[in-house]
Write a structure and sequence with these properties.
Elements lengths: L7 E10 L3 H10 L4 E4 L16 E9 L4 H18 L7 E8 H9 L5 E2 L4 E5 L11 E5 L11 H16 L7 E5 L5 H8 L4 E5 L3 H13 L6 E4 L12 E3 L4 H11 L2
């Protein structure tokens, strides 16, 4: 049975210098945020990744529960550490808001816009319009409550690597891909849209695999993707490309099971 979502959410908004945003995003996710979104993103038509100047805004959504006070103390402590690490930068500014569950769907959607992740790949939410260029490979995502929208630096880097490997390595005749901890399925779907014919997406969260299956249908790659609700360590099928947008601790733990 699918676990009931929280009735209330704590929205944390932080204004900070651009060079601190990725570190903040990582920290907020590790602290339990179920949605992290930046309001300052590269427009989908841009060819380069221009260097950001001035402050940027990052928004994180946490379940409002018994751990809220502990999370807030952790966030405040982390922001204080950033002030010490970057003494010449503007101090991060923190604000909070409690929202009810029915508002969640609309609250986070306004932060998710089409974004050019790399030279050929554009990620767009299903509810936004986007006129693609001839070179564009458009990945449509409805993330629901799963992680993976293309906004976070680690997701973008994984997608850049997929583009570079699949498009440029002509020595592999058939790509057999494993997306470990697939979340929304964004990485496995990207691989399929790049030409991989055999993609397995796994996640131990049933909500994530449900959302990944829906996104595979939206992108018309369901015939190339198998989605499994299990631990990646249980997979035995040989793969020649493994994608895993996970923490270093998890990757080190999984390595003996994935590399044989």
């Amino acid at each position: 049975m699918t676990q009931k979502e929280p009735e209330k959410w704590l929205k944390i908004q932080i204004s900070a210098p651009a060079e601190q945003i990725d570190a903040l995003g990582n920290f907020l996710e590790e602290t339990g945020a179920q949605g992290v979104f930046s309001e300052s993103l590269m427009p989908p038509g841009a060819d380069d990744f221009p260097e950001s100047t001035g402050p940027e805004i990052i928004n994180a959504f946490f379940p409002a529960d018994a751990r809220t006070e502990k999370r807030m103390k952790a966030v405040q402590k982390y922001l204080k550490s950033l002030e010490e690490i970057f003494p010449d930068a503007a101090a991060p500014a923190l604000s909070t808001e409690t929202i009810t569950d029915p508002d969640w769907g609309e609250q986070w959607k306004k932060y998710f816009k089409p974004i050019r992740v790399c030279r050929n790949i554009v990620v767009k939410p299903t509810w936004e319009r986007y006129a693609p260029d001839s070179r564009d490979i458009v990945v449509e995502i409805d993330p629901g409550m799963a992680f993976g929208t293309g906004q976070h630096a680690s997701t973008r880097m994984c997608m850049e690597a997929i583009e570079d490997i699949i498009l440029n390595d002509r020595s592999i005749g058939e790509w057999k891909v494993l997306d470990a901890g697939c979340g929304t399925g964004i990485l496995g779907i990207t691989a399929a849209k790049m030409g991989a014919q055999d993609v397995i997406c796994v996640d131990n969260d049933p909500r994530a695999t449900e959302i990944a299956a829906q996104n595979a249908l939206i992108n018309a790659v369901e015939d190339r993707i198998k989605i499994c609700n299990k631990d990646a360590a249980q997979m035995s099928q040989p793969r020649n490309l493994i994608i895993a947008n996970l923490t270093a601790k998890l990757l080190l733990k999984m390595r003996p099971h994935l590399v044989r």
